[in-house]
Amino acid sequence: MNNLKDWTNRNNNIPFGSRLNVALKARGMQNKELAKKIYVSNSNISKYLHTQHYPNVPILVDIAKELDVSVDWLLGLTNGKLENSVRKEGKTELHEKI
After folding, report:
1. Between the CA atoms of 14, 17, 19 and 24, what dihedral angle is there, to the nearest 10 degrees?
2. How many CB atoms lie within 10 A of CB 13?
3. 3-class secondary-structure state, position 83
4. Which one of 33, 45, 74, 79 counts the least CB within 10 Å of its CB?
5. Are 48 and 32 spatial neighbours (Cβ–Cβ below 8 Å)?
């Protein structure tokens, strides 16, 4: 996980698609796997990765949850700690990933 933190600290103005790609690699997840988990086509994931198209807000939230990163980080609004709202024992809590 330190690789993701190091990459984030070095790359301030990285497009959404590149951030999505880094998060996928950090989680060891394939495009098809993410597409299946969030109920979108693999071609949509490809468009997101190439920054040809952006997901709508509900899909963006699903992507962030699946990859365990914040929406702000995916959108390039923050480069610091990756935080995400996650479910633990039926509760939602904010936690620090790195």
Report:
1. -160
2. 6
3. strand
4. 33
5. no
